[in-house]
Write a structure and sequence with these properties.
single chain; alpha/beta; four-stranded mixed beta sheet; globular
Amino acid sequence: MKENIRNIALLGSTGSIGRQTLDIIAEYPGLFRAWMLVANNSADLLIEQARRFMPHIVIIANEQHYERVRTALAGLPIEVATGAAAIEEAVVAPEVDTVVTAMVGYSGLSSTIAAVKAGKTIALANKETLVVAGDLITRLVARHGSVLYPVDSEHGAFYQCLVGEQASAVEKLILTASGGPFRTTPREQLATMRAADALKHPNWIMGAKITIDSATMMNKGFEMIEAQWLFGVPHDRIEIVVHPQSIVHSMVQFVDGSVKAQLGLPDMHLPIRYALGLPGGRLATDGYKMTVDDYASLTFERPDFDKFPLLRTAYAAAEAGGNAPCVMNAANEIAVAAFLADRISFTQIHEIIEKTMAWAPRIEAPGYDDYVASNAESRRYAQSLVNQFV
Ligand code: MG
């Protein structure tokens, strides 16, 4: 018997978005079931989640942790598997209704493509997959009758502003940014900032990788490219605006001069709840809600492209197209990992990305294998730059 409960495959269940998605699944037990949980390395938390949510299957991607997870869950009616191929196999199962892609970075690409090809509904939190291969993924979505619902708060806002509107009525998308932990840090001090400084984000509680992307504003560049693919609006009609309170999650300006904005607390449970409610409608909650008493004043300012040059890099990558965003993403993943390990300085993140993009061979119209190769060689080159710096 499969009532009206939607089976969720949650890829990246132990990360920040994954844990908050499980909060939402637990909030609506009559609507959702965690059917499949996937984690990369966090075996202990995955075991805990499996015991609580009793999914059909759990997959620990890193094979080194497989025995521990299997032993811990022995005797429970839960299938345990490991490896990338197992993820791609399980995600296409007919029982799966919605796939939440909450893995970090490029690693989410192959399983996202498998789910798209199976025509699944996808709640997309893994923005890097669209940065890397937005052209390929949007073509596959159309061909296989899949659907992408954004989980990113800004894209959830665009989606809500665009409901009931015609594409031709849209003049531009206004993408809001908190400005990150270094918004008010003088530019000349950025070179001395360490990972510990960058990890203190003012508004949002997020994983380490995205918090560094927020500090460099690469995250906003990624979100601009993500918006291009999700809403079919070119990069030169997407404007980035700094809004330190993170209450306006983004806006859409229309041809008649009207602007629609979506507001709410800076809490990822909201966009996750909205994405999981689609296409049916909004899910009621008793949680804490926004009041104007707490936010009497909302402010907006232009981003500083000189202080955060990766914004310029992202627009250039969007303009160049082809494999340029894939190369940018690959170099960023290597540079951010090196910065988190205190191996390079904050400003060297930009340097590594620019040098890798200048070096990488251009591919005009990449297919899947081109993305795989371009990602691998760009990571190797970026890593060689990191090693020179150390
Ligand atoms: Mg966002």
